[in-house]
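Show me any protein, keeping tokens residue-aligned.
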Amino acid sequence: MEAQVDRQFDSVFRPVRTGNAFEETVERILQAIKLGVVGHGDRLPAERDLAARLNVSRETLREALRSLQQAGWVQARRGRYGGTFVTYRLPAPDVGELRRAAQDLGAELEDALTLRLVLETGAAELAARRDLTEDQRTYLRQRLADADNASPDEYRQCDSRFHLAIGELTGSPSLAAGIAEARIRLNDLLNAIPMLGRNIDHASDQHRAMTRAILAGDSAAARRATEEHLEATAALLRAFLG
């Protein structure tokens, strides 16, 4: 799985910039796990590569990984095929958890939804305007196929990867990182929405419409399809919150 998600490492494993390198390193890794960029059973990038991506010392990285291992998020394995592997599993969707997460966000909920809408519709429009390479086109199709073929347990991670992929295709690291940050603000809420078969089918149809528009270079349709998809998700979220 490591090679498949390598494109999205740049969105979440960004250089640490605050004074507390340890805490931000832990935060970056947790974000990658919660967003599904690295899911259960996946291996994190090699220590040297990850430390370079985060711009921290290998000792700081090791300390962060030790803390995450003690908390049950990752596990270190030795040997030829060793490394640090994700052991965390996303919790089952739960309306009670959804309401607790919404309460934690409070008045910031609508702000977070608005930010996501602006960033992701803009990203879809920009991706559609770009002259994408065949490799980039294949990448987006694969992310769509992963979400279409995901089991209920895997769907939320594959959905997240699909949305992050569109940010990657804009060619703007700052925009891709902004989409990842906006999604992490809503991640607990999105993960707690009960998995409804009809809703998944509807979301898949919308994902396909977004993909078709981007690959066809139709920026207006890409923006419109993305807006419809995000508004539908927001409406479902508000419905469960009562």
Q: What stands out?
A: The longest strand covers residues 74-77.
